[in-house]
Amino acid sequence: MHTAQNKAIYHKLQRIFTAMGLPASEYNTHSLRRSGASHLFTAGLPLHAIKVIGDWKSDCVFKYLKPTASCKIKMIQDKF
Fold this sequence. Notes:
Shape: flat
Helix content: 55-70%
Number of domains: 1
Structural class: mainly alpha
Number of strands: 0
Radius of gyration: 15 Å
Order of helices and strands: HHHHH
């Protein structure tokens, strides 16, 4: 975390996860970045748009994507 704003968001998330009964130590702002990118990808948003939203300048966005099984099947079907 680099800014006071990031720290504030992190601490707010920790309180929310704890209130939900989730293990707060397993979640952070990075979790939101990854799940957000994956959700947008699974919803069919083009990769270039996800890169713009996530402020990615390189293809490291691929490290963040975790498509669902049904999304993977659709990607395979679309290729062949």
